[in-house]
């Protein structure tokens, strides 16, 4: 097939009002303005803005992992501390200053990469607590690795007045941090992280290698925290373990990002501006009680604005804040639905060889404790076939799909296109041409329909850009009837629409084999008919092989070549449809109740 055979819909993607180049230019302009601060000649003000910038770099870089990937890294500040020590130790050893920054960033990047291995075995609260433990551990090491860190005495840097160059460095770093956030939010990598945040398993089955993506964002955010630590150490001219690893400040950047609205482009900045201002006000006006009042304010905000200020009703109804509270999505001007309906899908057109076995299962078994969900299943699926996989509830249909797509690694042998699938990861299974839908749909809820489809397309072997993928996405969306929902968030869709989106997302992978898990329940007869016509087109025009799990027998009866019947994990029938429905065991196991209900 060739993409150039295709007629693409007239879709255009343009950056949202507060995204892309405009924001990068805005950030650069703010940076240039900030460069003027030292010209006032008031060191207090320069110092204040400098500290603000350090907090901003920390909060914003934390949000790459916390907001984009959804991993709450409470130990982010440890990277700041290690960066500060690496910088200070190098500077004292006589290394030129720019190289000291590089050493700090590289050292922490290496440590972050190593820490990723144990940390990303954990999720949710466990991940957060494990990362929190890094802070006291780093502090302990700083106290005890005396030759490197000076122990409790800390490190005194060479006595130079560096506030102004440190300030300029911090401005540069802050601008780069923000510009990177803009680019990340719209990049393929950023979308991989957002998909991971939404649903790791679904991300894997659309071809995303999740661990390298998580490790990469840990390394990137760690390196920027290290640079913040380095520039701060430079300006402080003295560091000791409590200053750079102390829990009293370690969680402040996290609180700032969460307070503003983690995961929103402007969230960390707004959080830093507000919390930093409150902190300074309290420091000046409440010497004794400032920490208590500050903590109370953070608690109250957490209670009444759990998603952060920019996600609150107040922000959404306040003109200035409303613009800042927008999520970064690729904005699409959808082509008129009617114009795209009849267009062909941008999929490869394959001519199936009916004699060729595409998928071969030999003795596939999967047990959960003593419950053998799939029991010694042996089955050949030929190219271009549409197979109906049926059986009573709990007979093992979904588990068999999970074995094929490597949600589980089963016992037995799986061959795809003649190659052994043993040890393949889920993303690799997607890469070799297996697409699937989930019985309970799992779209990436806070991405739009367009982005859901496009993200799958961008992780195909031919790696189209996000813009190209968004163009393609409209064809798939129109194919499954979601053209009018194209720019809406997936979590706003109905159950049926989510199922349709799953189909579109799976098709965007250009699968050779499509595993469809119960899409017809809840559809009207007309909708079932339309869905069947989709499956027919997928098979007849694009040569895709399909295994369809479905309880609605009338849907399968319209299209399947073969019926494979499971009972308690075992194949009890594998025959052409007409033959299978005459089998007593099949009727008893499945068709009895379903067929009677439907009048078949
Ligand atoms: N993750 C799991 N842990 C433990 N048991 C499981 C798990 N997944 C499935 N099972 C069990 O495996 C058996 C087969 O379940 P499976 O979901 O594959 O059946 P199914 O045929 O798809 O059912 P349904 O038609 O209701 O979707 C059931 O007994 C189920 O309880």
Quick synopsis:
56% of the residues lie in helices and 12% in strands. With 600 residues, it is α/β, with parallel strands linked by helices. It has three domains: 18-246, no CATH class; 251-327, no CATH class; 346-598, 3-Layer(aba) Sandwich (Rossmann fold).
Q: Can you characterise this structure?
A:
The protein is α/β, with parallel strands linked by helices and 600 residues long. 56% of the residues lie in helices and 12% in strands. Strands 10-11-12-7-13-14 form a six-stranded mixed sheet, sandwiched between helices. A four-stranded antiparallel sheet has the order 6-5-8-9, covered by helices on one side. The chain has a two-stranded antiparallel sheet with strand order 1-4. Strand 8 and strand 9 form a beta hairpin. Adenosine-5'-triphosphate (ATP) binds at residues 368, 371, 373, 391, 393-399, 439.
CATH superfamily of the largest domain: P-loop containing nucleotide triphosphate hydrolases
- Summed over residues and divided by their number, the pLDDT gives a mean of 87
Query: What is the general shape?
Result: elongated
Domain unit count: 3
- How many H/I helical runs? 28
Q: What would CATH call the architecture of the largest domain?
A: 3-Layer(aba) Sandwich
Radius of gyration, in angstroms, nearest whole number:
28 Å
Strand content: 5-15%
Placed side by side, the strands forming the largest sheet appear as 10-11-12-7-13-14
CA(first)-CA(last) distance: 40 Å
Helix content: 55-70%
**Biggest beta-sheet profile:** 6 strands, mixed
Please count the beta strands (DSSP E, at least 2 residues each). 14
Q: Enumerate the distinct ligands.
A: adenosine-5'-triphosphate
CATH class label of the largest domain: Alpha Beta
Give the class from helix and strand content and strand pairing: alpha/beta
CATH topology of the largest domain: Rossmann fold
Extract low-pLDDT stretches. 1-19, 593-600
